Amino acid sequence: MTERPEDTVEPAGSGSGRSGGRFALIVAAAVLLGAIAGLAGVYGIGGGGRNAVAVGADAQSAPDGGAEVAQEPAPAVAGAPDEACRAASDTARRIAGLARGELAAFAPTLKPTRIPDLAFLGPDGAPTTLSAVGGDGLKLVNIWATWCVPCRKEMPALDELQASLGAKGGAGTPGFEVVAVNIDTRDPNKPKAFFDEIGIKNLALYADPKAQAFQDLRAVGRGFGLPTTMLIDAKGCEIGHIAGPAEWASADAVALVKAALAGGEPAAASPAP
Questions:
Q1: Which of the 8 DSSP states describes residue 158?
Q2: Distance CA 25, CA 31 (A)
Q3: Which fold does the domain 83-261 belong to in CATH?
Q4: Are the C-beta atoms of 239 and 109 separated by less than 8 Å?
Q5: Which of 212, 215, 238, 267 is the most buried (most CB within 10 A)?
Q6: From the record, what ranges are coiled-coil (predicted)?
Q7: Hey, is 16 helix, strand or coil?
Q8: Nearest 5°: phi and psi at 260?
């Protein structure tokens, strides 16, 4: 006959000892589980995977074998304000109310801040810099990669924004250009193939195959996720930025950029017919 636990007869006087032993085992197990949980919290054992460079729910590791980069908190921008950028921060203050709707994540730069003069390759493969492209006007600088899903999703909207507002400027009228800088480091042909695949017609293809621009931006508290987009003036002074994707072809985005082009004054409404 198979013996069941409930049929076992314990010797007299052994109950309290066995109960005490069980209690000790339970306490020991609880201590062990607590230690494991503590290690998991500190070192990420068994926890969610690290964030890739891309931000948002669609963030992924680079499928081309690029290293996964943990999302880091952006540090406060160090140093004294750049007084030469005071006009840009004044513009940022005046357009702050337009950061709404599709552009609610736009952060006006109220502390005068200069963006580094990023170095990258032009569409012809020749070295150039941020100050040398886009003419004498505003630039919407977008740092992106083909393996960044949010970057890929917003690229058609950036192309449309360039089509609707892109201009060289002149005769007292500021120009505007979307400067999209790709930081793929593996296959230099991949960004162009992507542009061709989705029908990009208006954006110039700038490339930084060493991703140095992404590192340089960290000096001013930018470049801690992809996409990173900054609205700057002709002097390289930042008016505002977004960490993450946005609907750049939306009415909200167009209104904000037009107001920035006008020096912070909202564009006048068209007269009723």
A1: H
A2: 10
A3: Glutaredoxin (3.40.30)
A4: yes
A5: 238
A6: none
A7: helix
A8: -65, -40
Q: Residues 240, 246, 251, CA angle at the centre, nearest 5°?
A: 90
CA 181/CA 116 separation, integer angstroms: 14
Please tell me what DSSP assigns to residue 88.
Answer: H
Task: Say how many CA atoms lie within 13 Å of 175 toward its Cβ.
Answer: 17
Q: Which of 122, 147, 115, 146 is closest to 207 using CA atoms?
A: 122
pLDDT in tens, the chain (273 residues): 333 333 434 444 444 455 555 555 554 554 454 444 333 332 222 333 322 334 333 334 444 433 333 344 444 444 578 999 999 999 999 999 999 999 999 999 999 999 999 999 999 999 999 999 988 899 999 999 999 999 999 999 999 999 999 987 666 678 999 999 999 999 999 999 999 999 999 999 999 999 999 889 998 999 889 999 999 999 999 999 999 999 999 999 999 999 999 986 554 444 444
